Amino acid sequence: MYILNTMEISLNGKTAVVTGGAHGIGRAMAECLHACGASVYIFDIDQTPLEFPAQLVSCDVTSRDSLSAAFDISGVPDVLLINAGTGIVKSLDETTRDVWDKTISLNLTAAFETLQIGAARMKAAGRGGSIVLTASTNSYDGEENLIAYNATKAGVLGILHTAANELGPFGIRVNAVNPGLIRTRLTQSAFDSPEVIREYFRAIPMGRGGEPSEVAKAAVFLASDWAGYITGATLLVDGGQMCCKFGPWKDGEAEFVDGAWRRVT
Ligand SMILES: NC(=O)c1ccc[n+]([C@@H]2O[C@H](COP(=O)([O-])OP(=O)(O)OC[C@H]3O[C@@H](n4cnc5c(N)ncnc54)[C@H](O)[C@@H]3O)[C@@H](O)[C@H]2O)c1
Q: Could you give all domains of the chain from N- to C-terminal order, each with its CATH number?
């Protein structure tokens, strides 16, 4: 088939689950899935009401029982976005066993169990589907004061590759988005500090941070039929941060205005 029937991404008739969809990137993912026609279920510990029609399911993804009960409510997903996560900023010396365990539990173990439970149900239903993990640019780099976080996001790539391998024969694709610095409550303090973002964004070819909707669109693309022959892939959503060593923005040639670098003309 060489002719597209439509130029829109359509998820009409599909059931989509997003973990950690009450805020930030996950919330934007849920909105985007809804805009593409999916019936959306959000698994989250936070039950703050939404302004768009998605079903909020009370779920602590670090509990296997809670996850199973949530999937009982959503039914079998066609699209599963495994996104819940957190980052605790601590130096190597300050990273206690408790910080390490909490980060591994939410970012890595819960991602594994969400995928394991969701994929088992998708396989049993026999209608294929698509899974997208939220990894990070920190899957690759060693940003300081985030050793536990970085370990989990590198680990997510291990889950990605193995799951794509094992689930391909069932028609289930597995991919990941790798966001750079995205404006959410997790990162708002950095965005609120002009000195921090001025230097941070100097190394980003796009000259600015990202918005949750920009990650959501990439994830929904990967989840959709438009990515029908893509599995085991990672998609950086980082304004080009990972492609350069020092970045293109130099004083004299550029200025930092309203939170973004722009060329001086
Ligand atoms: N913001 C960034 O710059 C950035 C960059 C790269 C990757 N990420 C990743 O994106 C994902 C979302 O981060 P965000 O910035 O939107 O954070 P956020 O704090 O805005 O949202 C996280 C969501 O996860 C939910 N959550 C937390 N613990 C949970 C649990 N135990 N069970 C169920 N839900 C739970 C929260 O209630 C919240 O709705 C995370 O995996 C994070 O590591 C974020």
A: 15-187+209-243 (3.40.50.720)
